[in-house]
Amino acid sequence: MAGAAKSPISRDELVRTNSAMLILTSVFVLSRAALHISKRKPLEFSDFFIYFAYALYIALWSCYISVVPPMFKVYAVLGGEIKPYATMMDDAATMLKLITAGQMCFYTLLFSVKMSLLTLYCKLLAGVAGIYKKIWWGILVFCVVAWLGSVFSSIFTCNNLKEKFSKGKCGGTANEDQRIIFSLYFAYSVDVATDLAIMFLPIRLTWNLQMPKAQKLGVFVLFGSGFLCIAFATLRVVQLGVDGRGKTTTPEPKWMLLWTVLECSIAIIIGCSPAFAVLIRKRMNSSKKASYNAQGYLKQSTEENIKMKNLVSSNGRPKRDMYWDDTHSSQEELAKNAGHIVVKTTVHQDDESISRM
Question: Ranges for the Rhodopsin domain (predicted)?
């Protein structure tokens, strides 16, 4: 499908941008690893998946940086900048091999980040209703099916796989172009759907929790950071699947290398973010200073005051309950309906000793 060409991206711009994203992503992953080592925590499934995703990121980045020289050389021939050369077909085949390998790393990387978050959220399911565990398993199966669908739709875009990897021939026919476009939008749609499903689970679990509003808002922001992934995935599919006139087209490899690295970097950074929540919480707790009253005693929190009020009646005396007959004695009474012994104790305080203080 021919369309209006996008603004070109130079070789240096592509390499510099992808190198900057590699450095930024590595800073987050290595910081998470350093924090993990300093806390002396055992390696968990969520850690394994995020480190595996980073290894896939390195592999993807290496494939893309290796494909840059032959890709720009082949496109220079197609653009009439240089004459055809003897090894042009070999370079085209190498380009498609590396791009295909990078695509497999791309889909598996996103799947691994999702698995890291899902295994982390699994801890939240301890003691909750069984329906949430069923939802968790349903999301897991959905992610696996989406990953497999994305991989196979990308592999079988060309009519002849042998010619694709030996001669670099893929695309150009209407049938192949349609499959390439379908693969792009299918992978995008299932990626967004799984992201929304993964974000829904923890947000729904924490919605009715009794916690300070600021803390609950922080939880929602942390779990809702997946919208940033969705935003970059949307930018990627628009930049790759829409030409300069707004019509659907096949992805241009130069821009695919750029936007794929950007989306993978954002995904890994978001996958690392839950590990830094403990630092933010520790910083917030250390910033809270103890307050004292006029006599120099530590002020009790509102929650503690409420608890004390529930134990004391309006006249200052302890409230009577169904097992309490005498507020000035200690008793042991067998509960008739509870089937166990309840021990009640009264502690007396000398008022004179308080007045002397």
Answer: 32-282
Q: Which of 280, 282, 283, 275 has its CA nearest to residue 33?
A: 275
* CA 208 and chain centroid, separation: 22
Domain 11-287 coded CATH 1.10.3470? no
Alpha helices in 288-328 (DSSP H): 302-311
The C-alpha atoms of residue 42 and residue 39 are separated, in whole angstroms, by 9
User: Tell me: the pLDDT tens digits for 242-269?
Assistant: 887 778 888 888 899 999 999 999 999 9
- The continuous run of DSSP H or E covering 332 comes out as strand 331-334
Burial 238-272 (b: 16+ CB within 10 A, else e): ebbbebeeeeebbbbbbbbbbbbbbbbbbbbbbbb
What is the pLDDT confidence band of residue 7, given thresholds at 50, 70 and 90? low
Q: Whole-angstrom Cα distance, residue 319 to residue 310? A: 8
Q: Answer for the pair 293, 305: CB distance below 8 angstroms, yes or no.
A: no
The token duo for 145 is 């099916």
**Tens of pLDDT, residues 127-150:** 666 788 888 899 999 999 999 999
* Mean pLDDT calculated for residue range 150-164: 86
> What is the Cα–Cα distance from 158 to 193, expressed in whole angstroms?
26
Q: Which two tokens stand for residue 151?
A: 């991989």
Could you tell me if 38 and 278 are in contact, meaning their C-beta atoms sit under 8 angstroms apart? no
* Cα gap 163→165, rounded to integer Å: 6
CB atoms within 10 A of CB 84: 9
Domain boundaries, the chain: 11-287, 302-350
Would you call 248 helix, strand, or coil by DSSP? Answer: strand
CA nearest to 240, candidates 222, 230, 218, 255 = 255
Q: Which of 224, 96, 197 is nearest to 154 (CA)?
A: 96
